[in-house]
From TrEMBL:
Family statement: Belongs to the NqrB/RnfD family.
The keyword Phosphoprotein is annotated on this UniProt entry: yes
Gene assigned in the entry: rnfD
Co-factor requirement: FMN
Highest rank taxon of the organism: Bacteria
UniProt membrane topology term: Multi-pass membrane protein
EC category: translocase
Protein name: Ion-translocating oxidoreductase complex subunit D
Subunit structure, as described in the record: The complex is composed of six subunits: RnfA, RnfB, RnfC, RnfD, RnfE and RnfG.
EC code: 7.-.-.-
Transmembrane portions of the chain: 20-37, 43-64, 71-89, 95-113, 125-144, 208-228, 235-253, 265-282, 294-311, 317-336
Localisation per UniProt entry: Cell inner membrane
Keyword vocabulary terms for this entry: Cell inner membrane, Cell membrane, Electron transport, Flavoprotein, FMN, Membrane, Phosphoprotein, Translocase, Transmembrane, Transmembrane helix, Transport, Ubiquinone
């Protein structure tokens, strides 16, 4: 299948790759700060270690490919991959887990296909799925928010100790309250309690979604709006994803019975919804290119996200939904590319039928 060629006239702006990546990193700050406040130092340490590992893996790949290291490191793209993966995995993850995910994201999902701009799949999500399938226990052990139990979150020094020595090295992680199932996981496994009972029984639930997660989602929503105002991407893919997720969750919501899939507000403010919508779905390399294609691309991700959350094996399925649609992005572009400027729209069915 030929690559999409969109004809002139073109518009150009002041944003180059490095500037775009810097804006993306800045936009993650509200959500990261919310995660830090509710879950402690773990997410920040994840980001720092992932960034160090990513820079090393990128430099190694560039050296092996005989490419200018300084030139490519200065575009910040590998740091974006590192930050997105670090946010996706549980806080207080061991150093080796983060390193394995980063090495796979950078060396296999990115450079094996030719580097930035050539990778067919989102590198951060590839690394996440590899870790989830290979190390399910480590990838599903999430720290509970500070408000969910009586106690203090690990200090900075304790968090660094956990990074290099594992959770067993810190007595606080032997307490039942420090790690809890996520609200999405509880809702998925529930078959006896009503939604109202779940909110009463489990401290993980907040006002609208998961305790801590709802504020993190609001933070990533704020970052996404900032990127929209900077014209880093268009509204088509993220908004269509959120709309389709809302429609699906509203259609299957039964006001909170024991088999309820959760309200639309719960799905919008739990898990990685806003993070995925504005920082993963909008990846310009692996998503659809045309505006119509972006709308379909985002809408199908929202549908897949809800279906896997409700009936699949994983409570939060952003990575799987995105990677499945990465497969379909070239197909969507082929059938939704705009007409050539100055020419009538081609009747594709007639042209293909006459071949």
């Amino acid at each position: 299948m030929a690559l999409l060629n969109i004809t002139s006239p073109h518009t150009s702006g002041p944003l180059d790759t490095g500037k775009v990546m810097q804006l993306v990193l800045i936009a993650t700050i509200p959500g990261v700060l919310a995660l830090h406040w509710h879950f402690g130092w773990g997410v920040l340490i994840n980001i720092v270690w992932a960034s160090i590992a990513a820079l090393g893996a990128e430099a190694l790949a560039l050296a092996l490919r005989k490419r200018p290291i300084k030139f490519y490191l200065s575009d910040f793209s590998v740091l974006v991959t590192a930050v997105l993966l670090a946010i996706s995995i549980p806080p207080y993850s061991p150093w080796w887990l983060i390193t394995v995910g980063i090495v796979f994201s950078v060396l296999i999902a990115k450079h094996l296909y030719g580097g930035i701009g050539y990778n067919p799949f989102n590198p951060a999500m590839v690394g996440y799925v590899v870790l989830l399938i290979s190390f399910p226990i480590e990838m599903t052990t999430w720290a509970s928010p500070r408000q969910a139990y009586d106690g203090q979150l690990p200090s900075l020094i304790e968090s660094i100790t956990v990074l290099f020595s594992g959770r067993d090295a810190l007595p606080i992680f032997s307490l039942d309250g420090i790690t809890m199932a996520t609200p999405l996981d509880i809702l998925k496994q529930n078959s006896t309690l009503t939604v109202e009972d779940l909110w009463t029984k489990f401290p993980q639930f907040g006002q609208w979604g998961g305790l801590g997660w709802e504020w993190a989602n609001i933070g990533f929503l704020a970052g996404g709006i900032f990127l929209l105002t900077q014209r880093v991407f268009t509204w088509h893919a993220p908004i269509s994803m959120l709309v389709s997720l809302t429609v699906m969750s509203a259609f299957f919501y039964d006001s909170g019975s024991s088999i309820s899939g959760g309200s639309p507000l719960f799905h919008l403010l739990s898990g990685a919804t806003m993070f995925g919508a504005f920082f993963i779905v909008t990846d310009p390399v692996t998503s659809a290119v045309s505006n119509k294609g972006k709308i379909i691309y985002g809408a199908l991700i929202g549908v897949l996200l809800y279906l896997i959350r409700l009936w699949g094996s994983y409570p939060d399925a952003m990575a799987f939904s995105v990677l499945l649609m990465n497969f379909a992005a070239p197909f969507l572009d082929y059938y939704t590319q705009p007409r050539t400027y100055g020419h009538a729209k081609k009747d594709r069915s007639k042209s293909e039928g006459g071949q």
